[in-house]
Amino acid sequence: MSGTYTATMGDRGRLVIPLELRRHAGLTEGVPLVLVETASGIVVMTREQAREQVRGQLAGTDLVAELLADRRRAATAEDAE
What we know:
- The protein is of the alpha+beta class.
- It contains three helices and two strands; from the N terminus they run αββαα.
- Strands 1-2 form a two-stranded antiparallel sheet.
């Protein structure tokens, strides 16, 4: 289920997440949240949701191989000088 909810910024920057959304998302007092600024606006998610999003974005990416390839190119360019 997805929906649109409104919240009003309170004093000292506090936001109250509507009860229905907290229940649906399983948010309880003390749950750490991550706020991500994007081109479209601000996204609020739990740490686990943020972790899963990053994992999804990196899926199929071999960062070590990319780093090694970059280093080899740099070394080749330095040797050519």
